[in-house]
Amino acid sequence: MEQILEVLPLVFNVQTIIGMFFGNIVGLLFGAIPGFTGVMAIAILLPFTFALDPATGIVTLFSCFAGGCFGGSISAILIGTPGAPEAAATVRDGYPLALKGESYKALSMAVFASCVGGTVSAVLLMFLAPVIADWTLNFAPPEYFVLGIFGISVIAGLNSGNLIMGIVAGLLGIFLSMVGMDAQSGVQRFTFGSLRLYSGFNLTPIILSFFALNRIFIGFEHKHPENSKEKGQAVVLSKEKLSLKDYKDCSGAICRGTIVGSIIGAIPAAGAAIAAFISYNIEKTFSKKRDLLGTGILEGVVAPEAANNAVTGTSLIPLLTLGIPGSGGASAMLGAFMMHGLAPGPFLFRDNGATMYAIMIGFIVTNIILLLVVRFLSKGFIHITRVPEAALITVLFVICLVGAYSNSTSWFDVMVTVIVGIAAYFLSKLNVPTVPFILGFILGPTIESNFRKALIMSNNDLSIFVTRPICIVLIILTIVMLVGAKFMNRAGAK
Amino acid sequence: MKKTINTTAVSAVLFLLLSIVLWFAIPYCIEDAASATDIGPRAFPRLMCGAMAVLCVLQLILLAIGVQKGKTITIQFSDYAQVILAMVLAVAAVLCAKFINIVAAAVICALLFLAVLRSKDWRYYAAVIITGILLFTLMRFVMKIRF
């Protein structure tokens, strides 16, 4: 508790508060535009946070993450098109409510549920992450190697639907991370004598190319820039107010959604979209108004909304303690932590206790700020969904290129961004999953060094990876997760 | 011209070829420094290439015997003409950035993007230029980045 009080000035300063507002607004904008996501917003904002101290930078990016998670619901409720997959369940009752003339009510209650879900999830993160991190101090190189493989396999299986190609993408990511000097022997690998490649590829260009530039190129597939004018069937924002009875009626759905979202968030790779659909399905069973679901009732909006934002905090538990991100957004956040000098793992809380507690308190505060931002700026966000894609992708291209340069003021990084961006576009056309690739690139050095250390420990005996108790548990967990994921995906699809 | 392709099969073949090329490139690109205790810098890249190749072959076998069908898409090459043009412009912008300011190169490229997309609304062009000016100001005077 003392530690928490000590770090409050780190959170409640002008720079961090502005960062939270800015991050929330950017995340909401990207989330609200159909086809764009909060992850893309994190990728684009990432290089510009290097000038900030780590706590402010990470909190700003997390605000983007939380804002992006909710942003999809704005377009889901007001134009009947989810801005992001996690808002797809919200459309079922959100849009009918808006058509009934209760759009403001739906939006206000949705953001309230998101705020509750996000805050509870952030509190859970703050209290559970340090405990789990302490437990991971028992891990040795073999456990870390198996853990890395576990992360890539689970993400590959869940995100792609095609486990084999997902793992292949992850292996390619690991291979790319090996370019540069080998830390253990000092030998150069695939540098072709180029000094620029001695330290390998930077993470910022890779994240920008996969999460942002790839999407910009996709924008050129549309023939006419004015095509998005068709999105003009937006419902006008109504003016009615929420009553105490509305809050009381929705409290059960919000609680259930928050519990579901918090649990699913902690499972690597399960994701906000699955949490939202499972939460909506639970309402179909437990809600007093279950027969009215789908006709436009507030419970049908708040349950998925509480669930999808409750994922944001707990999805960072495996990330911060084990270095395994639970989603695309968490992968981008993992990159952000590493680039701010905060390597996730057991020593994160021991070596950066003050910064980490400041970040986690920031996560709680930013959920409350999200509530204010949506309440006061919701009218403005509806206009962004009408901006033609041509205008958006060209402006984003400028930000993307300049962001790649600002990371290390290197022309080479800009070149890498464009070349990898082109490759990412073709890979996405071939349905090759990109998240396992990014994860492989991030975890590659850890996986390799622990693999080699483990073999040194065992005198090159590979059985070390399947005979240690924690390794066996992780291998079983991998199998259980992959099988369980199939069921969760089916539940989500229903 | 329309063509239907099985993306799973195509990606498996591409990755298989890539892994074979990388496997044979390893001795030329990585010096051997294996010792009695350490497996050396070549072993892990080889392991990755080998695993990639095995998985790709497995994927192709699953497709061949019909256990998996794979994803198919129908592509019309003319739909991608603008994408290819945008990629060429993006590479040209990066090459230009070697000689002129990166912000200027990105803005010029973005303006050309708008022309490619046949946008006639002057506000989009203005938005790109204003973004460039704001970013230049932010980087030069706030982030203290030298160009």
Characterise the protein shown here.
The complex is a heterodimer of chains A (494) and B (147). Chain A has 494 residues and is mostly helical. Chain A is built from 21 helices and two strands. In chain A, strands 1-2 form a two-stranded antiparallel sheet. In chain A, strand 1 and strand 2 form a beta hairpin. Chain B is mainly alpha-helical and 147 residues long. In chain B, 67% of the residues lie in helices and 7% in strands. In chain B, helix 1 runs antiparallel to helix 2 (43-64) and helix 3 (81-97) runs antiparallel to helix 4. The two termini of chain B are 45 Å apart. Chains A and B meet through helix 8, strand 2, helix 9, helix 17 and helix 18 of A and helix 1, helix 2, helix 3, helix 4 and helix 5 of B.
Any idea how many domains of chain A? 1
Strand order, largest beta sheet of chain A: 1-2
Percent range of helical residues of chain A:
over 70%
Strand content of chain A: under 5%
Query: What order do the SSEs of chain B take from the amino end to the carboxyl end, as H and E?
Result: EHHEHHH
Oligomer: heterodimer
Topology of chain A as a string of helices (H) and strands (E)? HHHHHHHHEEHHHHHHHHHHHHH
Strand content of chain B: 5-15%
Measure the end-to-end span of chain A: 43 Å
For the terminal residues of chain B, how far apart are their CA atoms? 45 Å
Question: Which runs of chain B of at least 5 residues are low in confidence (pLDDT < 50)?
Answer: none
Q: Give the largest interface pair and sizes.
A: A-B, 64 and 76 residues
Alpha carbon gyration radius of chain A = 22 Å
The spatial strand order of the largest sheet of chain B comes to 1-2
Shape of chain A: globular
Q: What structural class do the secondary elements of chain B suggest?
A: mainly alpha
Q: Give a count of the beta strands of chain A, DSSP E runs of length 2 or more.
A: 2
* Alpha-beta classification of chain A: mainly alpha
Largest sheet of chain B: 2 strands, antiparallel
